Amino acid sequence: MHISVNVDGVTYADEVEPRLLLVHYLRERLSKTGTVVGCDTGNCGACTVHLDGHSVKSCQMLAVQANGHEVTTIEGLARDGKLHPVQEAFHSNHALQCGFCTPGMIMQAIDLLADESDPDDETVRKGLEGNLCRCTGYQNIVRAVQDAAQRMKPGAGPKQEQHSDEHVPSQQPVGGE
Amino acid sequence: MTATAEPEVGKARLRKEDARLITGETRWTDNLQLTGMLHMAVLRSPVAHARITGVDVSRATAMPGVAVVLTGEDFAAEQGSLPCAWPITEDMKSPPAPALAVDQVNFAGEAVALVIADSAYHAADALEAIDVDYEDLPVVLDMEEALRDNDLVHPDLGTNRCATWIFDSAEAGAGTNVEDEIAAAEVVIERTFRQQRLIPAFMEPRSVVVDSSAGMFTVWSATQIPHILRWMLSAVTGISESKLRVIAPDVGGGFGGKLQVTPEELLCLLVARRMGRPVKWTETRTESMLAAHHGRDQVQKITLAARRDGTVTGLKVELLADMGAYLRLVTPGVPILGAFMFNSIYKFAGYRFECTNVFTNKVPTDAYRGAGRPEATFAIERMMDELAVELGMEPMKIREMNWIKHEEFPFTTVAGLTYDSGNYEAATARAMELFGYDDLREEQARRRADGSVVQLGIGISTYTEMCGLAPSRVLGALRYGAGGWETASIRMLPTGKVEVITGTSPHGQGHETVWSQIVADRLGVPFEDIEVLHGDTATSHKGMDSYGSRSLAVGGTALVQAADKVLAKARTLAAHMMECDEADVEFASGSFSVRGTSTVRALGDVVLAAHVAHDLPEGMEPGMDADATFDPDNFSYPHGTHLCATEVDTETGMVKIVRYVAVDDVGTVVNPLIVDGQVHGGLAQGIAQALYEEATHDEMGTLTTATFADYLVPCAADLPAFLTDRTTTPATSNPLGAKGVGEAGTIASTPAVVNSVLDAVRHLGVRDIEMPMSPERVWTALQGRPDPGAGDVAAGGLGSIDAQGGQS
């Protein structure tokens, strides 16, 4: 099937098998290997990306379902060499160890912060229920998300450094690989 | 080169590793794509014990994209047996362990056939077209039943008994005869505990890529042990070690689960050799649960002898340890690592440990975070509570009166180890203060008096562990097949930059950051100028890798020694350059100076002089690199006091941790941020054993917890916030004073939680609840009914694995 998907600001036109999972399309065809696969049942959330600004588990979606949509991965968060505040907060709060769950965790955290701009401990924990981490015991992840909330508050930084994945400028199609 | 302003050791440096991990620039094994690469998929046995009477691959071979389908017959002549490096006794029974089953399968999940295809999708498609005929054999699951030898896992061995290993303090001259202590005791307490089977559940599924081009075999693997893997792959295949290069790129967690020489690593290598093309295998999560090794799985019968005043006198430990169907790399040795730890921090006069290792038709067990020591700590900390209950004593008081006092170190224990340092009083005092122990006891009394629906429990764990694996001579005495040293190299580059090469193999621990801190301090080089290389046998040719909380205590020490060699040589050259006596040369903040003068040479200048070698002292070799290998004299002994308060809803059986305090003494801390992180993660895994996780099998031997929907790795909402702090008594066995922190949280926390839950409901007539303490189990215990039965039901989950081992 023919699909056209905008991924991290670039539109790709591709022929894909109908059964191809979105995560495999991202990893194998577009080389977006920052997004990873941790399970086959949608429980771990390591493959979390944004579809039109909302988090989805890309192992639970077919590539064809992304046709005509905008996908943002961990690789599309930084702007002009500047990290997203959630990425910065994960680093500053030592919210990762092996880092395998981190891309999905960051994508989910951004989604969470879009709904809850100043979440308490319990809200963060519940908001991250679909993302497993085996290294950190979540303590520093919770701290990082709350720290990121402060960093992202209106007026917390220069306008141009405030990111919103819902306003990704679409570029011209460059075709498939 | 500028001097470092403040000491790096002790500084909460943010990690160097993070830059690639938070941006998705990480290199996981599964990211690799090589030209012409083939994909391997593994057909796994759906049955736990059967003879293979026929394998028909004709339909699969004809499927689109399939290059070849291979069976055990195809590899029978070349696959040899997967290695077990720890024959714990001379007469240990060890069955052949083929990577691909040839004529018999011994656990559900064992590899039976391989599809090699042009894509992972095509390989998976063809798996379904392979027809295997199985002739069922009786399934052996229960250890006690297995020891009756009615049905045998490996008929050729004639028994399911693998080995029996004994330590007896009287025989070893380390203490009295425990039977005498028991006979003379005023109080004898006997309990049986079950250490359920766990799954390491690292987040990155295992993955292997082998490239056979250019006359070399390059193996990328998501492994903790690239060096050991290289050695073992060479030993099994006969491929020259010098023609094997093993690379552990970024590795997504291990927890002992990637301390293995796996069937799939060997098979990828054999397939790449056969096909002359690169091959990749990446497991699914369910494959990981079904085939990667499991952990724990012991039945512990413990007898404790004491006086009525609370003084403990004797401890007898009788273990059954489930090996599963095969002996993997260190399978039989894992329970033996606990042999020296059951006595823990307490002064027993007599001690005996006897462990019988048993074969069953289950996934092999092997190292999982703590490996033998969590089991030991759980048993002794549960027993100390049982003794307190029996004598009506305060549980902390009974610990205090029996533990080694701080002024008694170094202390040689009844298990024959010499604990070099510690201060149990200090850690306990700090923990009690942070916890608000007395206030919580009052609250508990109130709720008991009120008959509250939600009862409060307080659990204690005062633990120690042996880390820094390991003195090679001790490993030799335990019949382990390798040494326990570690190695490091420092390359002083002519531009002033520094490359550090380590034999440790981090997979989340942050060695790149911490090793840089150590070298920055030692050499006065900026942190940013140091690059740490690891996990590639071509750059790091020697090492014993990462496990057993060894990397800093052993590998960090090798690094200190290498740095000192660099400095010693640089000092000689600096004296030559400054035309002074070497005895007058001082070194501080990265510069050499002549005492009492203003003459100075920066280390970078000295390194450059060594590199260009225009004017060196007579006999000095050019260059300023150094290697060092450190073999520790002793283990290190972290310790601490963990306190856990739980609320137990007596109507639903639900357990909620309301306060968790961990005060750990891990010796000198290089990076407090990373140490805290290690403790947090360790706590999560230990708490998970107490409350959530269990690998269960049905009566046919099918693993019924083979997905993350069924095996309950805790999520953020399942865990509390932890309150952590530290006391510090430096280790005396290494110059850093480091003891190790990787396993402490896991070792300490399980008994703290279980003791807490029991403390909440003991007055309601509950004596014990098996782990994991699911709401169902707690509720059942509160009804005064016996436990629903070990291993019959999973603690929770969806039950999404059907009897054929597939997902329904």
From TrEMBL, chain A:
| Region listing for Disordered, in residue ranges | 147-177
In terms of superkingdom, the source organism counts as Bacteria
Domain (2Fe-2S ferredoxin-type): give its ranges: 1-77
Q: Does the keyword Acetylation apply?
A: no
List the Gene3D superfamilies: 3.10.20.30, [2Fe-2S]-binding domain
Q: Which CDD domains match?
A: fer2 (cd00207)
| A Pfam entry, by short name | Fer2_2
SUPFAM superfamilies xref list: 2Fe-2S ferredoxin-like (SSF54292), CO dehydrogenase ISP C-domain like (SSF47741)
Q: Which UniProt keywords apply?
A: 2Fe-2S, Iron, Iron-sulfur, Metal-binding, Oxidoreductase
Q: This chain belongs to which protein, by name?
A: Carbon-monoxide dehydrogenase small subunit
Per the record, the gene is coxS
From TrEMBL, chain B:
Start-end of Low complexity biased regions: 784-793
Task: Fetch the Pfam families from UniProt.
Answer: Ald_Xan_dh_C, MoCoBD_1, MoCoBD_2
Instruction: Return the annotated region ranges for Disordered.
Output: 783-808
Originating species: Lentzea pudingi
- Look up the coiled coil feature and give its residue ranges: none
- Please provide the record's keywords in A-Z order: Molybdenum, Oxidoreductase
Know the name of this protein? Carbon-monoxide dehydrogenase large subunit
Q: Where is the Aldehyde oxidase/xanthine dehydrogenase a/b hammerhead domain?
A: 23-138
